[in-house]
Amino acid sequence: MRFLLTLSFFFFVQAVSGQTAIKGIVKDTKGESIPGVNIYIKGTYDGTTSELDGSYLLETTEAGKQVIVFQYMGFKTQEEEVELNGGEIQLSPTLRETINEMSAVTITAGAMEASDEKRAVVLRPLDIVTVPSAMGDIIGAFQTLPGTSNVGNDGRLFVRGGDASETAIFIDGLMVGNAFGTTASNVPTRTRFNPNLFKGSFFSTGGYSAEFGNAMSSALALNSVDIPARTQGDLSLMSVGLGYSQTLVGKNNSLTATANYFDLNPYQHIVKQNFDWERGPFGVDGQVSLRQKIGKNGMAKGFFHTESGGMKVWQKVPGQEGRGQLVDLRNHYSFGQGSFKQTLANDWSMYGGLAFSHNVEEYNVAPFEIRNTNQIVHGKVAAVKGFSDRFSLKTGTEVFQFSYKESLKSENLEREYGDAQVNVFSEADYYFSNSLIMRAGLRAAHSSLTGQSWVDPRFSLAYKFKHEGQVSVAAGKFSQPVVETLRVVAPESSNTRASHLLLNYFLDKNGRTIRAEAFYKDYVNLLTYQGERFLYRDIQQNGEGFAKGFDLFYRDRKSFKNTDFWVTYSFVDSKRIFANFTQMVQPGFAPRHNASVVVKHFVPKLKSQLGASFAFNDGYAYTNPNLPGEMNAKTPSFQDLSISWSYLPKPNLIIHLACSNLIGRDNIFGYQFSPIPNENGVYESLPIRQTAPRFIFLGLFLTLSKDKTANNLNNL
């Protein structure tokens, strides 16, 4: 019996002496303890969890080299190799937070994402086509967002005190030249591309990525649809024209061909117009879109768009009797691009492509015949590498070829220029945690025409609070070539430049979005001159200016059932010396106070969506030569109340009715003055008005498909 007790005691001592105790405290990078961490020896069943204070004790009889695993949701799994020979081992690891794409902070300063793939959706393609005042125009919808100004006699995108030429538009990362239709003076234009082409957009009101350049104020990057949902045909019958689109979808590819014709002449004979039209705007366009999947994660896209159109309009001359001057305009435009994106091994991905834009404008304004030709070729290749869940790097190169020619055919005169521009860019994102991210980038370029080289640094930082709101700051320098009509006269002109500083607060939670942003822009190297088009003289690059202010944006899809609405307000204090001004003035395209409200309500019983939008600004500055000074007068406030009704009598049929400026307010954007005073010493004037008191649109959209529930909304 004594022998058995002795033997048992011997084995007990041996077991205890072979046991190892691993102990310590698990903390995060801030020094705070982490409870509930799973701690185990890899390849065994020996394990434990940390206590409330982060402490743990793991006892094991395993021996030799072993791997201790520390695992906890939200933190990067950590492994520690130790030698187990009995006794006690102290092991107190520091766990690093993992970066979760869905919960991590994102850069929001100056940025407004619009994509089904993003949590913080601002405007989807469906939002664009259903904004009442937009009339299906992409830019018309973006004019309801903060930071933009509604310049109704132009139609392009004006951002935070900047001219429309300061905004660049990209499709799948490639620049689009002459993205807006050619038009006569004070006749508003539209973008050339249908919102149905795009699945999302990135609209920057400033401080944007180093990937994009050649714009001082903002970048609008549109991302095209990949492979559509199904094979279908779409017929459009509208009050201003008609169109048909046919989509064929295979397993890994698709083809879409579209043709459209529009003619406002019949419409303008029915609805009262403010303008004296000899021939209303008309045109025809066609486009082909190809998509091909490459392997599991790649995509190649091809797109070609061409159009031709024109208009004839009489423009009265202040102080003169009669109809005035007849402006006869013709335009021919083509845009094509091929792009690709491909995911590679080891967390590498590549994308890029080649695009060209070719635009020909022909004006006949007696006795002058004018022909302008503008072409842009843009090639880009970029690579992105994720080195870890915290650090990623994007770098690339791109080449631009700009060419422009203008001819005064009646005088047998012409002038032109060409410029090759090489750019390189690099941008890095670093996540310090799920709550803090830094982005830093550089963009460098060289112009063959001027021999000029430049570097634009850009920087952003964002911090996310526990309540899910976040704050961002962004700063950077932005360069842009001089606009074509001036550069062809002074080809030696260097870039115009702007510096941005932004502070942003953003919260997207429970169907509600709040965005507030303060900004400051500083302009240098702006061109000043005397004279007008074709008669420019004394061109100098001594202009300067600034724009400062703040934006507010609130969107709510939760508070009211079946209702989506947003409210925006922007304050812009902008002054500059530019063009033929001799002192700092408020530009006519930069109202100080801008506001908009958009409301959309779906009525299930009526199978209808009702919409209303209201836009306001405090008026446009202009120079009255009958008063001393420059930009010495201001128009009455701009106001526009628009409504829309979208009705689905059948799943494959949509009827859309919209009316802009419902109350018929006489919005005035400025005045044209006679160049010489009358016999009383007064410079006579004519107001610059909207083309019509209101615009009414009626459209019927029919989808032809085996799937009888398919309609145009499926691709939005």
Number of helices: 5
Report the span from N to C terminus.
Answer: 87 Å
DSSP helix fraction: under 10%
Mean pLDDT value: 89
Shape: globular
Fraction of residues in β-strands: over 45%
How large, in whole angstroms, is the Cα Rg?
A: 31 Å
Number of strands: 42
Uncertain runs are 1-17, 115-121
Oligomeric assembly: single chain
Structural class based on helices, strands and sheet pairing: mainly beta
> Biggest sheet: strands, sense, closure?
22 strands, antiparallel, barrel
Summarize the structure in words.
- It contains 5 helices and 42 strands.
- 5% of the residues lie in helices and 56% in strands.
- The N terminus is likely disordered.
- The longest helix has 16 residues.
- With 716 residues, the protein is mostly beta strands.
Secondary structure layout plus pairing:
Elements: H1 2-17, E1 20-25, E2 27-28, E3 38-41, E4 47-49, E5 55-60, E6 64-71, E7 78-84, E8 87-90, E9 94-95, E10 111-115, H2 125-130, H3 138-142, E11 148-149, E12 158-159, E13 167-171, E14 174-175, E15 198-204, E16 218-224, E17 232-238, E18 241-249, E19 253-263, H4 265-270, E20 276-294, E21 298-315, E22 325-343, E23 348-365, E24 368-386, E25 391-408, E26 413-433, E27 436-447, E28 453-464, E29 470-480, H5 484-487, E30 496-509, E31 512-530, E32 537-556, E33 563-577, E34 593-603, E35 608-617, E36 621-622, E37 633-634, E38 638-650, E39 653-660, E40 668-673, E41 685-689, E42 695-704
Parallel strand pairs: 1-8, 2-9, 13-16
Antiparallel strand pairs: 1-5, 3-4, 3-6, 6-7, 10-15, 11-12, 13-14, 15-16, 17-18, 17-42, 18-19, 19-20, 20-21, 21-22, 22-23, 23-24, 24-25, 25-26, 26-27, 27-28, 28-29, 29-30, 30-31, 31-32, 32-33, 33-34, 34-35, 35-38, 36-37, 38-39, 39-42, 40-41
